Amino acid sequence: MVTVTVEGVQRQVPRGTTYETVVQEFQPQYENMIAVVAANGRIRELFKKINRDCTVTFFTLQDDVGHKTYVRTATMLFFKAVFDVFGAVCAQNCRVEFTVGHGSFVNPGEMIAPTEENAQKIKRRMLELAEEGTPFMKRTCPLDEAMDLFKRQGMKDKEKLFRYRMNSQVNIYEIEGYYDYYYGYMLPNAGYVKYFDVINYESGFMLLLPTRRKPLEVAPFREQKKLFKTLEASENWGSRIGIENVGDLNDEICKGSMSEFILMHEAEQERKIGEIAREIVNREGVKFIMIAGPSSSGKTSFSHRLSIQLRTLGKTPHPIALDDYFVDREQTPRDEKGDYNFECLEALDVKQFNEDMCRLLAGERVELPTFNFKVGKREYHGNYKQLGPDDILVLEGIHGLNDKMSYALPKESKFKIYISALTTLNIDGHNRIPTTDGRLLRRMVRDARTRGSDARRTIQMWASVRRGEEENIFPFQEDADVMFNSALIYELAVLKQFAEPLLFQIPKDAPEYYEAKRLLKFLSYFLNVTSESLPNNSICREFVGGSCFRV
To answer: How far apart are alpha carbons 277 and 307 in whole angstroms?
Structure first.
């Protein structure tokens, strides 16, 4: 017998009992399904056996690690269904490309028509496997054996990925003769995947899954056409240059041609920024460029680069940070925990902002404020502006796309830009890189360099940052005139050398340790790329340092 301690309660269980058995006793006490456990500080899948005394904590679908486990399991179940319904060759050509809202977009390749009928076939097979409670089996095998297995299955992306793997062994999952590889944890059987939907959309399928906030329901798919087209364009560009996954990127790094590749991608971004500038100039009456995007999107560098492009077209841009219109600290609203809520619209003096902008639009000379973050007050230091025929204001802030922020300004005077780091590079065809991971690593590296904030603090704050984005930015992204993707295919290989030492500093007894360990595993797939080859105006420089802009 071994002793299992859960929430201070001790249980004697036979050695070899699975964690799933222990979970079943405590599950009625939890509103949401328990997906994985931590035993003596180490994440364990529910089908793992208990062989020694341990203290166990639970992670449900509302916890990040639990939700990711559910998504991962549902994704493998989707590919197993494709394998069963359409055959092995069709499954080989399917790949998850990106997410839109709570939907993962799956490109089915040329052999499966993206019809509603085929979507229902996949869904029915997933439901059958779920109803049968078909188990997921996990086994550890030598690296060479895993590479040979996936080579036989035609999964060249996984074979290429393993070529750069340092570990000598690989964990492989199998469900009824279908083998796959996923970085992270899995649920014990298909019966745990209770909530999902499959629909046809554009050129592929959407696998719809619950969100962390509402893990027991699948909301109807909400179209976001501009976001989809932006992601699709980035995906297609990566395909054209031959870099769709980490294995492709590592191949390019090994060729020793990264300096040229970096310049090529930077040139592609500069071309797009130039196109945006020309669209602004060609639209009559634009005086306010409103730029918004989630944390660590590179808004500041983008604003500077856009301003340079506008100057080449005869405009005189003036940058203005919406943060300078913060209300004084004592007037700042507080959240449910009593902390200052700097991200809500009420934290800004919207009335004063609109008055100032309307006066500028009328040709008046206006003194603009500067917010002193140290003392928490708005100050005036003689920063006067008056708009001439070619002057244009570049306004940056999280509420830039919200018309409530600029309610008094004529619609034709505003040009809205949504910017985000929309990662389309994936680990392989079945393992996505979440966009939030790229932004989190960007912020972690920048905060450590410029604010003296350690990685633990950045991870600790991330959930709150994400909530603010979901409330104040994402609902307005489709209102943008254009979207700009600031993600760079090579950047994670650059960020790796800066992020890893920060992540290794997080102690094992810290709640943020599990996320740090996941990110370290994720970064281990990338070969290093030095930052020396980055142009000094690169958006990546905003985070790793060395930018020619004041960022």
So the answer is: 8
Q: Going by C-beta distance under 8 Å and a sequence separation of 6 or more, which residues neighbour residue 158?
A: 150, 181, 428, 429
pTM of the predicted structure, to 2 decimals:
0.94
Residue 551 lies in a domain: no
We report the CATH number of the domain holding residue 348 as 3.40.50.300
CATH number at residue 120: 3.30.980.10
Q: Is the dihedral of CA 532, 537, 538, 543 positive or negative?
A: positive
Cβ atoms 346, 422 nearer than 8 A: no
Kindly give, in sequence order, each residue whose CB lies less than 8 Å from that of residue 237, ignoring residues fewer than 6 positions away.
268
* pLDDT (0 to 100) of residue 550: 87
Residue 70 located in a structural domain = yes
Rounded mean pLDDT for each run of 10 residues along the chain, 551 residues in total: 92 95 94 96 95 96 96 98 96 94 95 97 98 96 93 91 91 96 95 97 97 93 96 95 96 94 97 98 96 94 96 95 94 87 93 97 96 93 95 94 96 97 94 94 95 93 90 95 98 98 96 94 96 96 95 84
- Domain containing 379 equals 237-544
What span, in angstroms and rounded, lies between the C-alpha atoms of 419 and 547?
Answer: 19
CA torsion 540-541-544-545 (nearest 10°) is -170
Residues 152 and 256 in one domain: no
Which string of DSSP letters, residue by residue, matches 440-498?
HHHHHHHHHHHT---HHHHHHHHHHHHHHHHHHTGGGGGG-SEEEE---TTHHHHHHHH
**Which pLDDT belongs to residue 260?**
94
Asked if residue 427 and residue 401 are part of one domain, the reply reads yes
- Examine the domain organization and report whether 259 and 392 are in the same domain: yes
Question: 26 and 97 share a domain?
Answer: no
